[in-house]
Amino acid sequence: MENLTEKLKSCSSEILARLKFIAALAGEFNYPVYIVGGFVRDLILGVEDFDLDIVIEGDGIHFAKELSHRLKADFIKHRRFQTATIVIKDKTHPHPAPQEAAAVKPSSGAGGRFFSIGTKIDIATARKEIYEQPAALPRVSPGTIKDDLGRRDFSINAMAVSISEGAFGQLVDFYDSREDLRNRRIRVLHSLSFIDDPTRLLRIIRFEQRFNFSLEKTTLRLLKEAVNLKMLQKVHKHRLRDELILIFKEPQTVRCIKRVYALCGFEFIHPGLRLSSKMLAMLKKANETHMWFKNNFPHKRRLELWVLYLAVLLEGLPSLTLRKVLMEFAFHKSESKIVLSYKSDAQRISLKLKGAVSPSSIYKILEPLRYEVIILALAKTNEARIKNKLIDFLRLYNGSRIFTSGHELKALGVQPGPHFKEILKTLLYAKLDKKFHTKEEELSYLQNVILAKR
Ligand code: ATP
Q1: In terms of CATH architecture, what is 193-268?
Q2: Is ligand 1 within 6 A of the CB of residue 404?
């Protein structure tokens, strides 16, 4: 059996130190311990992966609790699935050397130094799964590492590496996974895989596109059969939402979306939804404009590209349907707002910005909108006169400040109240329209404004 010790040694010193620490603690319990899933796949492929998925042949929850205790980490238990997540919340020391990590006894409580803040480790009891109903979540019970790998989605994700002392680095491969990885091929482990869990129909496309792998022949046939049985429509929409978000977060989103449409269609999102060449072009532009924004405005809020993709994907649905879809999939309120605003505002603002518009009017039109909607409006338009105004807003007007504050107003004898805001707004608009430049000019402009209001 292949030994991956050398590959493990080429991981970052922090990862290696964590593995050694976990292995030493599992040794105290006498539990065989493995890294599983995506980490092993990526280790063999030489892709960096920081998500550690640990499986224990023994009581994984008890083990995770003890590990969290020794690391002074948060512990989150998911009893139904016999899994737990620990999250490191504190870091007291700088990064160590790996040989130092191996030397630290898990009992000393010094392990926290090898785990930076926010590190998340998933720990599970090796388990078997029984699907009592298609497309519903399974019932789980403790099992062996073989059972645990056998319940996984695809062979390339069904390998483990032992990190137990004495077997450190040994590859565990019961399902010809290594051979599939070598042949760049994705294969389900049994013929009912897509029926048991139809989210795998979306997952397989994600991995196929990410690694440029091919779908094994029988797997492709099973996929098509599951699509014909409309299996995706039988899954809870919240689970589909999570898979869609993962697709939107892939580096090759547009390719993934095209492939999802080609193999599965969009009926699982809404029967009226189609993929058009216009939508594809807009998805690409959304990506480019997002990148431009990130590079040119590093000090502004970071935008989630995936929400832009979602807005573009759903844009073609009628407004009421769109609202319904967003609700059914339970997208977050702030995400739904962006999608709805893009649908209703992008066209409208472009029309308003077409003609001659003063800077203050541009500000009034765009200021109430989220950056995401402005970026999408920018991506959508081909007209330079609209583009320039949107860019001017981002570069010049947004974040523009006046010198005057409530203090000056009070000093000038204005009584505090709602008109304070009005006066300050009038000043800001006048500044944007270049009616004054210096602080002194602003003050005399202000006096005129106050006089006019009296
Ligand atoms: P990524 O690189 O996108 O994070 P991953 O392989 O690490 O991919 P996760 O979603 O983090 O994927 O899941 C971890 C592991 O759990 C997978 O590698 C796979 O073995 C297993 N798994 C995840 N989802 C399923 C599923 N729906 N059915 C069966 N096994 C699954």
Answers
A1: Orthogonal Bundle (1.10)
A2: no
